[in-house]
Amino acid sequence: MRLKMVIVLILMTLIVGGCGMNNESNPVSPSEMNANELPDVPAFKDEFTRDFLQSAEPVKDEFYPFVSGSGSFTMNFPQDMKVNKRSYEIGSENESEFINISHTDEQKDGFINQKISYISFMSNPENGRERMRSSSKRELDFKEIETEHTGQKLEISEYESDPFSVVAAFIWNDNNQGITIFSHIDCKEDLTKEQCSTAKSSEKETIMEMLKSIEFTGKESE
Amino acid sequence: MGQQRTFQATEQLIHNRDHSDKKKVLKTPIDGIRENDKDFYSYVNKIIISEDQKGKIIDAMKKETKDRMKHDEVICENITKKVNKAVNTFNEQVTEMKEQRISVTYEDHNME
Amino acid sequence: MIVLSMELLESPEIKARLIDIEYGDLKPQELENRLKQLYLEETGELFEGEIDIFHSSETKNETITSSNYDGTAIHISNDGHEEMYVISQGTQGGDDWLYNLKSMLAGQTAQQAEATNEFVMEAKQHLEVDEDTKTYGLSHSLGHNNNTVSYLAFGTFDEVFSINGAQPNYYELFKVDIPFYEAVRKEFAIREDMDVYDIEPQKLNDFAMQYYQDKSDNIHQIISKDDPLYAASAVRGFFTLGNVTMMDTNPDTPGLRELMEDIPDDVVKNFQDLAIDFAIGSEKGGTNGGVEALIGVDLKEFEGIDGFWSGAGFYFTHSSEIDTMIRSLEEKVPTLLDKLTPITENSEEIFDSLYEAEYITKEQKDVMIEEIAIIEQELHEINETIGRNVNIRDSGNPNAIFGGDIGAGLRIYFDHVKAIMESVDRIKESGILDNLSAITDSHSISELLSVMSEGKKGYLGTDMVYTATKGDGDPIKVNISAALRMYRETLPILEEKETKIRNFEQSIKEELDDSYKDEKRKVQDEIDRMESSPGSYRDLLAKHGHLPAFNKEMKSIKVHEVFYPLENNDFDEEIHELKKSVESGKLYIEKYRKAIEDLFDEEDNVSKLFDFSRRF
pLDDT (tens digit, 9 = 90+) per residue, A69-123? Predict the structure, then answer.
C-alpha cells in the first residue's frame, strides 16, 4: 500500500510539478510588482495605497493613475501622499466609499489632508451642496470650475478656518453619483505668515490638479 | 321489397366525461371561508393573555368562543363532505342519463 | 419657557412602540392605522390630523433603496402644527445586522449616516415638508448610531430619540463633521489625519463629550442595563451623549457592562471580533460556516475525505483548493491567534464572571475554558506546520513544494481542523450559545417596554395590556391592543365571508344545477339527431349483432328517454347556517366588547377606546 502510494506520488509530482513551473510574464499592476521595481515615492511605498494605483508610469509629472476601490471614479494621485487604511470605508455593493488621503513628508512646509466621500445615491445635486454646508457648518458658495470631463460638474468653495485653508469640492453627474471632498491645508509651525501662504498656494495647485482629474467611471450595476 | 324488423337495445348516446374537478371549484369558497374564520378567531384569541385566567365573564366568553369556533368548523366540514357527495352523484347521474333504451327499425333486403 | 418637542408623539412609550412596529415594514396604510391606534391607546384620544408616510423603498428615483438605507418618514400635522418623524432601522436590517455591528465596532458607518441624511432630505421633498418643520429621528439599536452621527455632523434632525441604541463613535465624527475634525486637530496638534488613532481614547472621549455638550439636550435615550450593545459600547470610540434613562430589566443579574468592565478593553474587543466573525459565518453555514469565517477554510470542499489515501487522491483533483486552504491559513491563523491568546489568558475570569452572574452554568463554564484552550493549541500547531511548509516552498524545488503541500494540507485538515470542529461542536452541545443568545433578549424594545409599565397599564411585546379592575377571580390581564384590533378588523372579515358565501351559492347553481341542465340538453340534442336521421347510425346494426349490415336499411330510431332530477344538490340548509354564523358573529363582536368593558371601571374609558377604534 505504502509503496504504491509513493509511486503514484512520484508520478504525479513529475506531472504536476512540471505544469506548475509556468511563470507569469504579463504586464502587472503595481500591487503585484516587486517593491524594488516601483517608483521610490511615498505613494508606492505604502502597500495599501499601492493597491489603488494602476500603473508605475506617471500620468503626468509627480502624479500616478488612481482608481477608487468601488471602481466608481479615477483621478491623478500625487506621489507624495498616501491613503489612510484605518479610516477607509467601502459600502456594500460599491455604493459608497470614503477615502482619507494625507501627505507623508514631515519635511514639507505645506501639508494636505483630504477626505473624499463618494455616494451613488445622491437624489439631487442641491442635497449634495446642502450636506457639505451642514457638514462644514458654513454657508458655502460654490463656483463651477471647467474641466476636460463631460457629463459631470466640478464646483468649488474655499474658506479659511484657522489654521487651515480649506477647499471644499463637489463633483456630480446626472446618474446620482456625487463626490464631496474637503481638503485641509496647514503649515509647519515655524513658518512666517508669508512663507505659510506661499506653501499653501503651492499645495492648492496640487489639490486643483487632483480635483480636475477626477472622472466618474459609471455605475457597475447598470 | 324487404322485411321490416325492429330491435331494442340500451345505448350510450354520448361519451362519458369525469366531472370531479367540480369538487375543487365548489370547495374554493369554502376554503376561503375557513381562512376568514381562522383570521377572525386569531384576532379574538389574542385578547385574553394567559390560559389560566379565571373569572365569570371571561369564562363565559371563552366558552362561547370555543363553541362558535367548533360550530364554524363543523359547518365547513359538513359542506366539504357534502360537496364530495354532490359531485359524485352528479357524475353518476350524468353517466346514467347518457344511457337510454332505443328501438331501431330496419328493412332487411336479404333475397333468400 | 417650555419648549415642546415631539409634541404629537410625546410619550416615550408611543415612540418605542412605533419604532418596534416599523420593523415590520408595513404598507403605509397599515402603518398609519397602527400609529393611530397607538395614539388612541396612549392618549385615549382620537388622532384627527393628517399622516403622510414615505418609506425608503418607495422613493421615485430609487437612489435611496440602492443605498441600503431602511427607514420610514412620517409627516404628521394636526391643527396647523407639523412634525416629521424619521425612523431609521439599523441599515440593512434583519439578518445583516451583524455586518453592521461589525462595521460599527470597527468605526465604519459614516457612509450610513450620509444615507440617513440623504433619505431625510429626499423624504422632505417627497412629502413636501417645510424646511422649518421640526424633524425627529427615532431609532433602536444601530439606527441610533446613524441618526446621531447624522444629527451631529449634518444637522439632519432637531432631536433624536432611541431605545437601546448603538452610540456614536468619535472616529466617525472625525471623518464627517468638519468643525469637530478641525477642533480635534487643533486641540491635539495632529498633522496627519490617521494620528487621531494615537490619541488616548479617554482624552478624545472627554473632548467629544465637551465639544457636543450643547447638542446633548436634544438626544434622548432609554437604555437597558442588560443590553449587550450597551456593554459592547464600552470599547474605545463610542461616547454616550444625551439624556440617558437607564432601566434595569433584569434586576437579579448584574448589568453585562459591569462584567465587561472587569475585563481588559482589548480582550473584550478581541472577543467581540471573533464572536461576530463566527456568528456571521455560522448564520450562513452552521458550524462549518463559523469555522470558515475564522480560519478561512471552506470545509465543504473537504467533505468525504476520510483517510490519507483518499486524501492523496483528493489532492490530484483539488490541488488548487489545498493551495487556497494553506494560503488562507497562512494569512488568518496568526491574526486569529493574536486575538485568541489574550482571551485564553483571561478565559477563567471571563467565564467565571458570566457564571457568577448566572448567565451560564458551572458545566458550561468548564467546557468553554477547556475547549478554548484546545482550539488555541490546535491553531498553534497549524501555525507551526504552515511555517515548516513555507520553508519547503521557499527552497524552490517544485517536487518539494508538492510533497510539502500535500503532507501539510492533509495533516492540517485531519489532525487540526477536525479537532477544532469537534471542539466547537462540544461547545455547541453544552448549550452555552443558547444561554448567551438569551442575553440578546435584553436588546429588544419589548423587554424595555415591559418595565415601562405603570398602574394597570403594561406591555406585552408592542401591545398594551390592561389589568382588569373588576372581576371576581384573580386580576385579569387584557391585551387591549388586540381587543381594539379585534373590534376594528373582524367586521371586514365577516363581510368578506359574506361575499364568499354568495360565491358558494353561485357556484352550486352553476356547477350543479345549470351544468346538469346542460348535460341533459346535450343528451336531448343527440336523441333528436338520432330520431331525425337514423341513416347516420347504421353502425348500431353491427354493434347489436344484426349482421351482415350491408343489405339492411335503417328506417327509424326511437329513443325511450327517461330523465331523473339531480339529487344531493340542495345546500340551502348549510348556506343558511353559514349566513347565520355571520350574523351571530357580528353580535358576538359586540358582546365581547361589552364583556371587556365590564371588566373595567367607567373612568378607564375602555368604551371610548372601542368607539374611536372604528373611526380611522
Answer: 999 999 999 999 999 988 888 877 788 899 999 998 678 899 999 999 999 888 8
Pick B53's closest partner by Cβ from C477, C504, C508: C477
Fold type of domain A37-216: Protein Transport Mog1p; Chain A (3.40.1000)
pLDDT digits (tens, 9 = 90+) for C499-512: 999 999 999 999 99
**Residues near C417 by Cβ (< 8 Å), separated by ≥ 6?**
C291, C295, C297, C299, C302, C378, C382
Residues C236 and C130 in one domain: yes
Most B-contacting residue of C552, C564, C582, C610 (CB-CB within 10 A), to test interface? C552
Residue in chain C lying closest to B94 (CA): C519
CA distance A110 to chain C (A): 10
CA dist C22 and C38 (Å) reads: 12
pLDDT-based confidence at C97, cuts 50/70/90? low
A221: closest chain C residue by CA: C66
* C193 interfacial to chain B (CB closer than 8 Å): no
Are both C311 and C184 inside the same structural domain? no
β A215-216/A89-90 pair status? unpaired
Contacts of A136 in chain C (CB under 8 A): 178-179
Question: Cell triple for residue C411?
Answer: 495533516
- By the 8 A CB rule, do A103 and C146 touch? no
Angle at CA of residue C453, ends C447 and C459, nearest 5°: 55
C337 near A CB under 8 A = no
Q: Do residues C413 and C542 both lie within one domain?
A: no
d(CA C567, CA C512): 10
Name every chain B residue with its beta carbon within 8 A of the beta carbon of C520.
97
Number of structural domains in chain C:
3
Query: How large is the ipTM?
Result: 0.93
**C227 against C522, higher pLDDT:** C522
C194 and C62 assigned to the same domain: yes
Q: Whole-angstrom Cα distance, residue C296 to residue A104? A: 34
Cβ contacts (< 8 Å) between B18 and chain C: which residues? none
Lowest mean pLDDT among A11-20, A59-68, A171-180: A11-20
DSSP letter at C168 equals P
Residues 127-146 of C with CB under 8 A from A: none
pLDDT (average), residues C36-47? 93
Alpha carbon distance A91, C100 (integer Å) = 11
Q: Nearest by CB to C110, which of A14, A98, A127?
A: A98
pLDDT cut 90: percent of chain C above it? 43
- What's the confidence (pLDDT) of residue C257? 73
Q: Which of C198, C226, C261 is the last residue of a domain?
A: C261
Same domain membership, residue C375 and residue C353: yes
Residues from chain A that touch C107, judged by Cβ atoms under 8 A, are 87
Domains of chain A by residue range: 37-216
Q: Is the pLDDT of residue A4 over 50?
A: no
C271 and C179 belong to one structural domain? no
The pLDDT score that the predictor gives to residue C31 is 95
Domain that holds residue C586: 479-613
The answer to whether the Cβ–Cβ distance between B82 and C571 falls below 8 Å is yes
**DSSP classification of residue C538:** T
**Which of C388, C421, C443 corresponds to the end of one domain?**
C443
Which positions in chain C touch B53 (Cβ < 8 Å)?
A: 473-474, 476-477
pLDDT at C60: 63
| Neighbour-count burial for C551-575, b at 16+ CB within 10 Å, e otherwise | ebbbeebbbeeeeeebebbebeebb
Q: Do B68 and C584 touch (CB under 8 A)?
A: yes
Residue of B nearest to C563 (CA): B97
Model pTM?
0.76
Q: Closest chain C residue to A102 measured between Cα atoms?
A: C192
> Do residues B46 and C555 make contact, with C-beta atoms less than 8 angstroms apart?
no
